[in-house]
């Protein structure tokens, strides 16, 4: 076992380099001893490119670190490389520069490489080699490149030389017509890197590659991942060269991305389904989405002015901005990550996007978060660390040369050197784990050369536009690095987190008030180890400190739970703060305190109930406070408060939660159905139903709970709309978890007895939809279950008692029209007694008065050509997608049904499936949500595709 002491100075060859002593102790296994018969474990195949020496080697790795590894087993030596003739397969490298490896062979070898490449090192890399029981010193000859400067890659001869040589080799590699690349994303980055050099001689090869990549097929299953990088490449190419050869392809991708964005400004693995405002599958996925946002903004700068593009960028920035000042950007539409600095490079990406949008505050926050991310945290990444490494320097560079130099000094310099091969190709290394990640073998040359190209400022990704953020001083940059050391957590055997146990009280409280929530969290744990109960000093911080100190004080008081009861009053006053995040953190502290803070709950309910505002367009505060009230607060306290406050406040807060655009927030509400008074329950019953038939705008991953629980709630009470909601849900449910969920929903239908015959048409459609889907996730068996249930329902005769949420309002059309139209001769469906162009039947549908001309909002629809997922099915053919939207009256007469028709000349109208002699149009509804006012459909053509088409929404008697 090797005991980790302090992190070594891996850049000792740079005078004045940032060197931070790590204040934690770890214990890690050293791995097999190859000099004593040890072998590479069969379950740990990951090896490393050993930098520019021309060899690959295996070393012990775990939990994103190679600490504990003191031997490197040579697995391969590249012919013609510097190691050829010096090393061979089976050799073991035990040390460098005359010293045995002490703690981390990877970092220590990388440091030795850096020294050897310096002017002082003269290109001589001395290694301690073990071969066949004999140990000796050997020398590998490397090119002399110089040393990284304190501001690398800026004003740095070594960075310039690496860029010059690397770009030249990359250019020679991609120039031949026969070149086919290694993948769309790394190939796009290679093009961007060559563009970033500004070398005119590279232009022909660049154009050839842009053309090849522009025409490349993109997989529907991961479309967004690819299109973000492709759009960036196309836009930067036109901006840098003025060549608009590929403008039409850029425009096609940009409009596809804009139209495929969710209504809340997010993207997922795929674009939104045709006609739908929501993502499917996992939902939002920021690591894929932010490059799309950057690409769209770059395409706008390249001259694409379509309002859809402009709006998509605005919404995406709005979506991300909720994280500014709070934490790092999470996986998807989740709360801010308060536990670590950058993850998967998303903060670096966001820094670039916000910089392009001239948002100084957001750019600075995201770039600071990226600067503090290095070591094992930078090695992290969902499925791998490719994006985390790619977007490091582009994001940090928004703070200027001092920030990049500090990061390169502590981590980037040695890591970049270790990734650079002897042939000037950078290959993805992956995290320091026993197994390789999903990006193994990727050519990441372009990604790394982009970092070295920052000083040239030739393209927007490398700073062509002056940064919107203030440039960091050397002292500020050093402090960001110091902040980052305290979130380097190892999870391996014997691993412990960074702590602040060696600090004075004043120093510890200063960390509690740090700008970074990640640092605050570590400091608060240290505070609790030191003080068993909260100190009055936290209240002083809350009342007189700066904003970050107030945030930290709230978080610290929250961590002590009920022991912070003495701070209820100052926390209550914090609820009146103008800072949204302080109000949220104060509310959370009050929730953790519990019953002693009961008197503050009505105020928290008021804050939650206010919903959206100009300063909070996505109702982020309501979302976070719903989590506080319905997850973190004692449910008994909430029950008591709900019974005591004004009914209108209880109803407003509950409605804000259950209709929130975030599915995770809505799914919290079923926990409290049983805590609501009967008076409140009667008010919100229709809202519970609405939440069962319509997904929230975002958070599809978490949207099932509110639907399933709401339907069970309605079913237990014998409410007819529960049965309708079950049929709707079976038609449009997420395929993940579909098997068990279908069984649950069918089980609910049984309690409706023969009443369920009413929804047999919807059940048949649900079965057809499932049968047309790709197999997997239990789709096939679910269709069989539904078909079997249909037969059971047909045989039922029992009619249990049934009530309706809207029974008092929903009457037959004839009864309804009598209330508004006195003349019996003008009461037919097609009559228009008020002359406003809307028939009685459609007035019934819209909920407007057929006897008085009024505004009815009309019917909106839009066209989109889509290839890919269509109404739960995959297609390789382009289809015209039409999204029809209109208000639907909750009391729409139950003896009427919707009718959709189409026309190409606005004279002759045809039903779905009918032909006009040239075209046959099939209108396929795939979401119908009574009570929430939206019906959506897709259109599939047979024969000639019309240049123009219109649709009519009407009604007819059942």
Please tell me about this protein's structure.
The structure is a single chain. By secondary structure, the protein is of the alpha+beta class. It has 35 helices and 16 strands. Strands 3, 4, 5, 6, 7, 8 and 9 form a seven-stranded antiparallel beta sheet that branches. A four-stranded antiparallel beta sheet has the order 10-11-15-14. A hairpin with a 2-residue loop joins β8 and β9. α9 runs antiparallel to α10. The longest helix has 19 residues. The chain is globular, with a radius of gyration of 32 Å. The N terminus is likely disordered.
Helix content: 40-55%
Question: What is the overall silhouette?
Answer: globular
Number of strands: 16
Largest sheet features: 7 strands, antiparallel
Over all CA atoms, what is the radius of gyration? 32 Å
Strand content: 5-15%
Average pLDDT, to the nearest integer? 87
- Total of DSSP H or I helical runs spanning 4+ residues: 35
């Amino acid at each position: 076992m090797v005991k980790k002491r302090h992190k070594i100075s891996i850049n000792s060859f740079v005078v004045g380099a940032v060197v931070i002593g790590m204040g934690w102790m770890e214990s890690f296994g050293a791995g097999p001893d190859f000099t004593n018969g040890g072998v590479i474990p069969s379950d740990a195949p990951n090896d490393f490119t050993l930098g520019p020496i021309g060899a690959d080697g295996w070393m012990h790795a775990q939990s994103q670190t190679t600490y504990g590894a003191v031997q490197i087993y040579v697995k391969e030596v590249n012919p013609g490389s510097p190691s050829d003739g010096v090393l061979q397969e089976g050799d073991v490298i035990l040390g460098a520069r005359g010293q045995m490896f002490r703690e981390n062979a990877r970092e220590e070898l990388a440091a030795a490489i850096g020294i050897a490449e310096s002017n002082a090192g003269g290109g001589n890399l001395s290694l301690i080699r073990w071969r066949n029981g004999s140990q000796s010193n050997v020398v590998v000859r490397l090119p002399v490149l110089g040393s990284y400067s304190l501001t690398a890659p800026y004003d740095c001869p070594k960075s310039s030389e690496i860029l010059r040589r690397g770009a030249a080799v990359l250019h020679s590699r991609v120039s031949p017509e026969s070149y086919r690349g290694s993948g769309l994303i790394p190939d796009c980055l290679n093009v961007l890197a060559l563009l970033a050099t500004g070398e005119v001689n590279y232009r022909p090869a660049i154009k050839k590659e842009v053309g090849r990549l522009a025409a490349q097929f993109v997989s529907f299953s991961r479309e967004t991942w690819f299109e973000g990088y492709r759009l960036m490449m196309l836009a930067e190419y036109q901006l840098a060269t003025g060549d608009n050869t590929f403008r039409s392809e850029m425009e096609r991708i940009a409009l596809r991305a804009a139209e495929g964005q969710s209504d809340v400004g997010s993207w997922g693995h795929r674009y939104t389904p045709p006609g739908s405002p929501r993502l499917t599958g996992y939902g939002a996925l920021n690591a894929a989405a932010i490059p799309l946002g950057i690409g769209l903004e770059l395409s706008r700068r390249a001259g694409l002015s379509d309002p859809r593009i402009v709006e998509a960028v605005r919404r995406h920035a709005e979506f991300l901005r909720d994280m500014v000042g709070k934490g790092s950007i999470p996986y998807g539409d989740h709360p801010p990550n308060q536990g670590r600095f950058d993850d998967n490079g998303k903060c670096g990406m966001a820094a670039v996007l916000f910089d392009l949008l001239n948002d100084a505050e957001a750019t600075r926050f995201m770039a600071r978060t990226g600067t503090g991310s290095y070591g094992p945290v930078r090695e992290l990444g969902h499925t791998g660390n490719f994006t985390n490494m790619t977007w490091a320097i582009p994001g940090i560079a928004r703070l200027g040369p001092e920030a990049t130099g500090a990061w390169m000094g502590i981590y980037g310099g040695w890591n970049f050197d270790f990734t650079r091969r002897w042939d000037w190709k950078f290959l993805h290394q992956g995290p320091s784990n026993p197994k390789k990640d999903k990006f193994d073998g990727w050519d990441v040359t372009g990604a790394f050369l982009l970092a070295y190209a920052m000083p040239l400022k030739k393209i927007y990704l490398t700073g062509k536009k002056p940064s919107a953020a203030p440039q960091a001083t050397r002292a500020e940059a050093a402090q960001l690095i110091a902040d980052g050391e305290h979130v380097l957590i190892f999870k391996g055997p014997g691993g412990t987190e960074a702590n602040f146990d060696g600090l004075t009280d004043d120093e510890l409280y200063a960390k509690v008030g740090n700008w970074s929530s990640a640092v605050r969290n570590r400091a608060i744990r240290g505070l609790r180890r030191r003080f068993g109960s909260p100190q009055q000093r936290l209240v002083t911080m809350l009342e007189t400190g700066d904003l970050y100190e107030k945030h930290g004080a709230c978080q610290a008081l929250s961590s002590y739970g009920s022991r912070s009861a003495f701070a209820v009053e100052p926390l209550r006053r914090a609820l009146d703060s103008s800072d949204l995040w302080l109000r949220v953190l104060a509310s959370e502290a009050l929730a953790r305190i519990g019953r002693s803070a009961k008197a503050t709950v009505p105020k928290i309910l008021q804050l939650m109930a206010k919903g959206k505002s100009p300063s909070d367009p996505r109702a982020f505060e309501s979302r976070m406070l719903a989590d506080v009230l319905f997850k973190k607060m004692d449910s008994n306290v909430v029950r008591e408060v709900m019974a005591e406050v004004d009914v209108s406040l209880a109803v407003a807060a509950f409605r804000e939660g259950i209709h929130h655009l975030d599915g995770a927030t809505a799914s919290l509400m079923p926990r409290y159905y049983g805590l609501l008074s009967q008076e409140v329950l009667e008010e919100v019953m229709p809202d519970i139903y609405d939440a069962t038939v319509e997904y929230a705008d975002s958070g599809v991953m978490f949207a099932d709970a509110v639907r399933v629980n709401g339907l069970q709630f309605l079913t237990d009470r014998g409410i007819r709309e529960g049965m309708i909601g079950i049929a709707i849900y079976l038609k449009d449910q997420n395929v993940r978890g579909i098997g068990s969920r279908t069984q649950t929903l069918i089980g609910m239908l049984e309690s409706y007895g023969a009443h369920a015959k009413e929804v047999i048409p919807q059940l048949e459609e649900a079965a057809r939809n499932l049968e047309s889907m790709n197999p997997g996730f239990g789709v096939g068996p679910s269709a069989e279950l539904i078909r079997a249930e249909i037969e059971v329902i047909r045989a039922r005769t029992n009619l249990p008692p049934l009530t309706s949420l809207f029974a008092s309002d929903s009457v037959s059309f004839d009864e309804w029209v009598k209330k508004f139209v006195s003349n019996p001769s003008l009461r037919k469906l097609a009559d228009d007694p008020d002359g406003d162009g809307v028939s009685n039947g459609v007035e019934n549908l819209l909920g407007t008065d057929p006897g008085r001309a009024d505004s009815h909002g009309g019917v909106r629809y839009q066209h989109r050509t889509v290839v890919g997922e269509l109404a739960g099915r995959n297609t390789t053919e382009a289809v015209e997608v039409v999204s029809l939207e209109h208000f639907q009256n909750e009391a729409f007469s139950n003896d009427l049904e919707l009718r959709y028709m189409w026309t190409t000349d606005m004279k002759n109208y045809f039903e779905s499936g009918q032909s006009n002699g040239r075209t046959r149009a099939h209108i396929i509804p795939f979401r119908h949500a009574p009570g929430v006012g939206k019906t959506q459909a897709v259109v599939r053509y047979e024969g000639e595709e019309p240049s123009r088409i219109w649709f009519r929404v009407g009604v007819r008697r059942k």
